[in-house]
UniProtKB/TrEMBL annotation:
Membrane topology according to the record: Multi-pass membrane protein
Regions that span the bilayer: 93-114, 134-154, 174-197, 209-231, 238-258, 270-294, 328-353, 365-384, 391-411, 423-442
Reaction equations catalysed: riboflavin(in) = riboflavin(out)
GO cellular component, as recorded: plasma membrane
Pfam families found in the cross-reference section: SLC52_ribofla_tr
The protein's name in its UniProt record: Predicted protein
Protein family membership: Belongs to the riboflavin transporter family.
UniProt GO MF annotations: riboflavin transmembrane transporter activity
Keywords: Cell membrane, Membrane, Transmembrane, Transmembrane helix, Transport
Compartment annotation: Cell membrane
Source organism (scientific name): Naegleria gruberi
Length: 561
């Protein structure tokens, strides 16, 4: 299935195409007017009406004006046609930028603090072993998104038991809104608290720092389950904006760390670094508030859901397929990409270059350029309009081969192929960069594709519901007209229908059809909130966790040394 996305067309190429089309139309119009004038002149002379034939110059001037007007109309027509064809549904740049800023808060705190490990190792009582404790705190923080995911799945069942009927009208889920705002408050508060408590040990351990690290992990890990469903309310083009912002987190954190360590002594201490990251998170909070509450942002929603009541939204969800091929593909590939990108490749990268010349420089190039190429690849994923099944599988195959190749190199330590070769080390850098780029490209493209499919499904269901509603309204009006034509029952007729001896009419029970197991299962699944983007976010979390634990086990077993 081909996904139609917006793409940028160079203004020079666009103008050249328009000019060619306009010139062809102008030549046709010019020949047409010349033939009309010649025929009219010959007819007038044949009838002896020579005064009808006017000066050739006046005729040509008039034809020039007509041709110029038609050329302008034609130019506007072809311009609109070409722009509509090549730039399908271009996003609003303001909203697009706000979503990028919103996505910056997803992992910038964790990435930033990890980039400070060389500085923390000199100060913390644990030394460089603080990285192990940080990783443990981060893994414990994954419990919160797991609990939230389970709660959101059974949220509808809980709401129905507590409040069976509701007339609430809202585009965004109130639970998600409160949760996102809470994450921002927790993240900013933890970073500010870390700036004060990071170097205060308790019983020889950095407990205050690790507690703040746990809270930072809660904020960043849970954001994956909340940010993707939020952007699903907008048009499909904005999924790429969120992923661009998420890709920029590592790059921005690294740039701040490089500036900090650009001199022999750090330009500013760790607590200032925490305040800077907290400031960036605060900018993301402001961006979210503008996207969530500003009326201007609602223009870019998939549909004006505010006009729909709760019952209509539930009907749309019920009529939506429980699991489509695009949803299965999204969850599977997000899990697989997260395993490789956030677990395997990141963990084995030091082992890949360990036995090649200038291994530290090669590792730095692979990580830094990979961070730069990641947001660029996410942007290119939106601009590239073609992405059918075969192209998708080919792109996935490239990063899978690259990740497997790097893993094989790491497993062959301490005797990898072409050991101590600078040229082969450079080749490995290229492989690592291409693998990172295609991972980001495929991740963004899968989200865009799934978002577009969901958007089309909901539009079709909504149109069907409107059609059914109109039919029911027409039927109701028809029945009311028939009832108005029926004469009212007289008093004698009403008395004649009363049951004698005061007996009551008892309604006989109607045999209800028993539901099959499949129908009961479907009914239970429809009561769950199986948001495709939330499921994909949970797959990302599980993939990173599984890969990290697996690589840790292999590392402890000395498979990489």
């Amino acid at each position: 299935m081909t996904e139609t996305s917006g793409r940028v067309v160079a203004s020079a190429d666009l103008k050249e195409v328009v000019d060619d089309q306009v010139q062809q139309h102008a030549d046709v119009v010019d020949n047409h007017h010349q033939q009309q004038y010649q025929a009219s002149a010959e007819k007038a002379i044949a009838n002896g009406q020579s005064d009808v034939v006017v000066n050739d110059a006046q005729v040509l001037d008039k034809m020039g004006e007509i041709t110029k007007n038609e050329m302008n109309q034609t130019e506007r027509f072809y311009l609109r046609k070409i722009v509509a064809k090549t730039c399908s549904d271009p996003p609003n740049l303001i909203i697009y930028s706000l979503i990028i800023l919103f996505g910056l808060s997803s992992w910038i705190a964790v990435n930033g603090i990890y980039s400070e490990i060389p500085l923390l190792g000199y100060v913390m009582p644990e030394g460089y072993a603080i990285a192990v404790d940080m990783n443990l705190s981060l893994q414990l923080a994954n419990i919160v998104p797991f609990m939230y995911f389970v709660f959101m799945i059974f949220k509808k069942m809980i709401q129905r038991k507590l409040k069976p009927t509701t007339t609430r009208k809202s585009t965004f889920d109130i639970v998600d809104t409160v949760s996102i705002l809470s994450l921002f408050v927790i993240g900013i508060g933890a970073l500010i608290g870390m700036s004060f408590l990071w170097n205060i040990p308790i019983n020889g351990r950095s407990w205050p720092f690790l507690i703040m690290m746990f809270l930072v992990g809660v904020s960043d890990c849970t954001s994956t389950l909340l940010f993707y469903p939020f952007v699903l309310h907008f048009k499909h083009a904005y999924s790429s904006a969120l992923l661009i912002g998420e890709s920029l987190t590592g790059l921005i954190a690294s740039i701040i760390s490089i500036i900090q360590n650009s001199t022999p002594t750090p330009l500013f201490p760790f607590w200032v670094f925490c305040i800077i990251i907290a400031g960036i998170t605060a900018i993301s909070l402001v961006s979210y508030c503008l996207l969530r509450f500003l009326p201007y942002s609602k223009k870019e929603l998939r549909r004006d859901v505010d006009a729909l009541d709760e019952e209509t939204r539930e009907l749309i969800v019920k009529k939506r397929p429980l699991m489509t091929w695009s949803t299965v593909r999204l969850i599977f590939f997000q899990f697989l990409i997260s395993c490789s990108e956030n677990g395997v490749v990141v963990s084995i990268m030091p082992y890949v270059f360990a036995h090649y010349k200038h291994h530290a420089t090669l590792l730095q190039y692979a990580i830094t350029i990979g961070m730069i190429i990641s947001p660029i690849a996410s942007g290119v994923a939106y601009l590239v309009p073609f992405y059918n099944f075969f192209i998708a599988m080919f792109c996935h195959l490239i990063w899978i081969v690259g990740a497997c190749f790097l893993t094989v190199i790491a497993f062959n330590n301490p005797n990898p192929p072409l050991k101590y070769s600078t040229a082969f080390g450079g080749f490995l850098v290229v492989v690592a960069i291409l693998t990172k780029g295609f991972m980001s490209f495929c991740k963004t493209k899968e989200f865009l594709h799934s978002h577009q499919v969901i958007e089309k499904q909901d539009e079709m269901i909504y149109k069907k519901l409107l059609l059914e509603s109109r039919k029911k309204t027409e039927q109701t009006q028809h029945v009311e007209e028939k009832l108005e034509q029926i004469e009212p029952i007289s008093t004698e007729q009403q008395e004649a229908t009363i049951v004698p001896n005061g007996e009551e009419i008892i309604d006989l029970p109607i045999n209800q059809k028993k539901l099959t197991f499949g129908e009961r299962l479907r009914d239970a699944l429809t009561q769950m909130d199986l948001n495709p983007f939330r499921c994909a976010g949970f797959g990302i979390q599980i993939g990173a966790l599984v890969a990290t634990v697996t690589v840790k086990l292999f590392s402890d077993a000395h498979y990489f040394s």
